[in-house]
Design a protein that fits this description.
Layout: H1 11-23, E1 26-31, H2 37-50, E2 55-59, H3 73-76, H4 84-98, E3 101-105, H5 112-124, E4 128-134, H6 141-148, E5 153-156, H7 162-173, E6 176-177, H8 179-189, H9 193-205, E7 209-212, E8 215-218, H10 226-236, H11 241-253, E9 256-257, H12 258-262, H13 267-276, E10 279-284, E11 287-292, H14 295-303, H15 307-324, H16 331-340, H17 348-360, H18 364-376, H19 381-393, H20 397-410, H21 414-431, H22 435-441, H23 447-451, H24 461-477, H25 481-492, H26 499-516, H27 519-533, H28 542-557, H29 560-568, H30 576-593, H31 596-606, H32 617-631, H33 635-647, H34 657-671, H35 674-691, H36 694-707, H37 713-720, H38 727-739, H39 743-755, H40 759-775, H41 779-794, H42 802-808, H43 815-825, H44 830-837, H45 841-855, H46 860-867
Parallel strand pairs: 1-4, 1-5, 2-3, 3-4, 6-8
Antiparallel strand pairs: 7-8, 9-11, 10-11
Helix pairs in contact: 1-2, 4-5, 5-6, 7-8, 8-9, 9-10, 11-14, 11-15, 15-16, 16-17, 17-18, 17-19, 18-19, 19-20, 19-21, 20-21, 21-22, 21-24, 24-25, 24-26, 25-26, 26-27, 26-28, 27-28, 28-29, 28-30, 29-30, 30-31, 31-32, 32-33, 32-34, 33-34, 34-35, 34-36, 35-36, 36-38, 37-38, 38-39, 39-40, 40-41, ...
Length: 879
């Protein structure tokens, strides 16, 4: 599809090659097939041509290798006939006299006579040489002597790094590549440019590499196109039947322990394949693991293996794993997946156990498939209840209710009845928003309990434990944090609490610690509860929710660095749900650090996973989008996101209410209504404080400080003594500095906030210092503070907060006049502005008149145009 790709990630190699050509008479570019040696040689040759040197390109091939001087056939055609020796002499003379720079591509394929000629040219230094050779391939002695004897410098051309691979693809596509898609493209191609080029072209043609919402996304698995297949076949070469069998086994089961592989294939075949590079053998712990020589080999081999043969190979592998005991991590999952598509009989216990591992890896499509197969194989209650909860987690509540109903009918013990009742209650509370019915399911003896398979026996031991866990979660979601603590303690304080009950109770308490700013308790609890959750397929997925709230809480505390660690483990997990989870963690951190456009973009990419109210998540995430666009100073997009958040509010999930009100504050701030922004921020703070969300209260009160409120120092100082992390003390210092109108203290607060990576807050503090200094006529210090604020704002992707607008783009008008002008720029009439600010229309008209007079503007429209925020046509793609 693309005739020439940019030379990306080769700046160092290009410089060294050009230097060697100029100073050492030439260079040998060595590397694996497809890494870009030829492309680099072409660029070096082009540069020589631009400097007026005569150049020539010679390409050796396997077919020309058996013909003396075969690679130089085109030049020989220009010479008169003669013996081989005569032709060699004439050809050498032509090259010495007429060619200043000669490129010999794939010199390892030269015949001996051509290699001798090349060696002579290098010795004589009459012609500068650029030679490419394939690493690990046998080459004529005269060619290897080029670098062994020091005649030419040898330069290794490695595969591209992941970052360079992404940059290259983005330059070709002309747009940004979604993070996980870029990582997958690198993983599949291992940074090999030739394979990357053909893969990108084929996937784009197939409609799996597409642009959506300003990003390029790669979905699905790569298809081996004929062109790509030919390239891979050429690299694999001809195979004997034992070699073919070996590659098929590895393709369907990699990585395979070499000892296990040796039970299926002769060890000598394994050794020979490793020597040829068909497979790689590397230590995995105390054992050796075998993989195919390149990730795309597996796709090619599987594509060429018929269905019957493939089923037989998977069966052989599954049986071999079973024979060895399948004791290593991941063996059960691999064996189960192999069994599903093999000629072996399904094992319901194995499939259910494997579904737990699939859920741990965020591969819910595989978990669902394994659980459905387990139910079909007669697994009974366990796979059925796990299937119901898996469907609930991926927001398919109606299907989940059906499966949980089947599980209730299969329940035969009090523990099983309690579990299914709890899961149905959770599904109804969050996904179906049937709050009353959810609580009824947790009451022993109710009709809902009997519907779920309960006996009505209040003395049933598991009943209280299994209902207290969900009650803790419901209370936390409902913003009743003290109740959540009480219910959670009933479960977690028991020495023998079940993992099931501990998971739900612990998740509720994690939410409490996160919102309350109890960082130390939060971190200790997450590790404990995640370990409990991973014990069963119906709870394994909850680790993602818990890690998100851990990142959320750490961000509230002012520890973005630690929050990032909550998402790093997601990077290499398969599937789109892992990508979604990682993006949401990253987006939350970006909102805290001030990367406002990135935050909005990442959240918007994840929102399709949460249709409707999304179990309560949608309103929280849309509130984040509204805050991000508010910080960016884009009121229209901020208003739209806030409207979606309000529409998606969940009747039982009230813990997000302070965030929603705070989002409204940022909408008002983006519109220029700083007074209204302060009112809303303080309302959010009061609601957060009343319910015990003290970390959220800090954020809301600090926002009011950034909007210009000077009355928050006392409460923030109090909160700094009870909320963990550096954010609260830094916010208190900022509030005290603003209250005291102390620019030096504001700059000190800015430095503390920057140290905590709260960059946008640091920019606001510096901007406020600039405003104070400028008002006092301190020109030089004001210029310093302005420059600091602007530099910090630059790191925040074009953020335009009220403080930054006033501090870095000052106008000789009062704060009230600027507020009126900014509201006018949003399209409000004078009467509407008066109502918004609780003043008379005449007062508004007076502010407009005085501002226009001071700025020399003719009318209200000109004033509005001057202060209008820059509306971005596509702010997400420009992030």
């Amino acid at each position: 599809m693309y005739r020439e790709w940019p030379l990306t990630g080769r700046a160092d190699q290009w410089t060294r090659a050009a230097t060697a050509l100029r100073e050492s008479g030439g260079v040998v570019l060595a590397g694996a097939a497809g890494v870009g040696k030829t492309r680099l040689a072409r660029e070096v040759l082009a540069e020589a041509g631009r400097h007026g040197r005569t150049t020539r390109w010679i390409g050796a091939t396997a077919s020309s290798r058996g013909i003396p001087l075969g690679a130089f056939a085109a030049l020989i055609g220009e010479l008169s006939a003669g013996s081989e020796a005569i032709l060699l002499g004439r050809l050498g003379a032509v090259l010495r006299e007429d060619v200043e720079v000669l490129v010999v591509d794939d010199a390892h394929l030269l015949d001996d006579v051509s290699a001798t000629l090349l060696h002579q040219l290098a010795v004589e230094r009459a012609t500068r040489l650029v030679v490419t050779v394939r690493g690990g391939e046998a080459a004529p002695d005269a060619v290897t002597a080029l670098w062994k004897d020091g005649l030419l410098a040898r330069l290794e051309v490695p595969v591209l790094t992941e970052s360079d691979t992404v940059r290259l693809v983005e330059s070709v596509l002309g747009g940004r590549l979604e993070d996980a898609s870029g990582h997958r493209l690198f993983t599949v191609t291992s940074g090999n440019v030739l394979l990357l080029r053909h893969l990108v072209a084929g996937e784009q043609r197939a409609g799996r590499l597409v642009a959506m919402d300003g990003l390029w996304w790669w979905t699905g698995k790569p298809e081996i196109t004929p062109e790509l297949g030919d390239l891979i076949d050429a690299r694999i070469g001809l195979l004997s039947e034992p070699e073919r069998r070996l590659l098929e086994l590895v393709a369907f089961g990699e990585p395979l322990e070499v000892g296990l592989l040796g039970t299926l294939v002769e060890p000598s075949v394994v050794e020979a394949a490793a020597e040829r590079g068909l497979i790689t053998v590397e230590p995995t712990g105390r054992r050796l693991g075998a993989r195919l020589g390149h990730p795309l080999y597996g796709d090619a081999v599987r594509a060429r293996t018929g269905p019957i043969r493939a089923r037989r190979r998977r069966g052989e592998l599954a049986a071999a794993l079973a024979a060895t005991g399948a004791r290593r991590i991941g063996d059960a999952l691999r064996r189960a997946v192999l069994t599903l598509d093999s000629d072996l009989r399904a094992d319901a216990t194995l499939l259910t156990s494997a579904a737990t591992e699939a859920a741990q890896l965020a591969d819910w499509a595989l978990a669902e498939r394994l659980l459905r197969a387990a139910t079909e194989a007669g697994g009974g209650f366990e796979p059925r209840v796990a299937l119901g909860q898996t469907l609930s987690w991926v927001v398919r509540p109606a299907e989940a209710e059906v499966e949980l109903g089947h599980a209730a009918a299969l329940a035969s013990t009090g523990e099983q009845r309690a579990r299914v009742a709890a899961l149905r209650a959770i599904n109804r509370f969050f996904l179906l928003a049937e709050i009353d019915q959810a609580y009824q399911l947790l009451e022993p003896g109710s009709s809902a309990d009997r519907e779920a398979g309960g006996t009505g026996d209040e003395t049933d031991p598991p009943r209280t434990e299994y209902s207290d866990g969900p009650r803790a979660l419901f209370a936390a979601a409902g913003n009743r944090l003290d109740d959540a603590r009480d219910y959670a303690a009933r479960v977690l304080d028991q020495p023998n609490a079940s993992s099931f009950a501990a998971t739900w109770a612990g998740y509720g308490l994690i939410m409490v610690h996160s919102l309350a700013g109890q960082e130390d308790r939060l971190n200790a609890l997450v590790d404990r509860v995640v370990a409990e959750a991973l014990n069963a397929p119906e709870t394994a997925h909850m680790q993602f929710n818990m890690r998100y709230f851990q990142a959320y809480g750490l961000g509230l505390a002012g520890r973005p660095g630690q929050a990032r660690e909550c998402g790093t483990w997601l990077r290499d997990l398969p599937g789109r749900y892992a990508t979604m989870a990682r993006d949401l963690v990253t987006a939350r951190i970006a909102l805290d650090t001030g990367e406002v456009r990135s935050s909005a973009r990442l959240i918007q990419a994840a929102l399709p996973f949460f249709p409707g109210h999304g179990g309560g998540w949608t309103a929280l995430f849309e509130a984040g989008v509204a805050q991000a666009f508010g910080m960016a100073g884009i009121p229209s997009l901020a208003r739209e996101a806030l409207a979606r958040a309000e529409q998606a509010r969940h009747p039982g999930v009230r813990c997000v209410d302070p965030e929603l009100i705070l989002a409204g504050a940022w909408v008002a701030a983006a519109e220029g209504g700083t007074g209204q922004a302060i009112e809303r921020a303080l309302r959010a703070a009061e609601l957060a404080g009343e319910s015990g969300q003290f970390a959220v209260e800090v954020v809301a009160r600090h926002a009011a400080v950034c909007f210009g409120d000077t009355g928050q120092a006392e409460r923030l100082t109090e909160l700094a003594g009870q909320v963990d992390g550096p954010r609260a003390p830094a916010a208190a210092a900022h509030a005290a500095a603003l209250a005291g109108q102390d620019p030096d203290a504001l700059l000190a607060a800015s430095a503390a906030l920057e140290e905590a990576e709260l960059v946008l807050l640091a920019a606001d503090a510096a901007a406020q210092a600039a405003t104070l200094l400028r008002a006092r006529g301190h020109t030089a210090p004001a210029a310093f503070a302005t420059a600091r604020a602007a530099a910090l704002a630059q790191r925040c992707e074009g953020a335009r907060t009220p403080a930054l607008r006033a501090g870095t783009a000052p106008l000789p008008i009062s704060a009230r006049e600027r507020e009126v002008a900014t509201l006018a720029a949003t399209g409000l009439s004078n009467r509407e502005i008066a109502a918004r600010l609780h003043v008379s229309v005449r007062t508004v008209e007076g502010h407009v008149y005085r501002a226009c007079t001071r700025l020399g503007l003719p009318d209200r429209a000109a004033l509005a145009a001057l202060v209008a925020p820059p509306e971005a046509d596509d702010p997400v793609s420009r992030a």
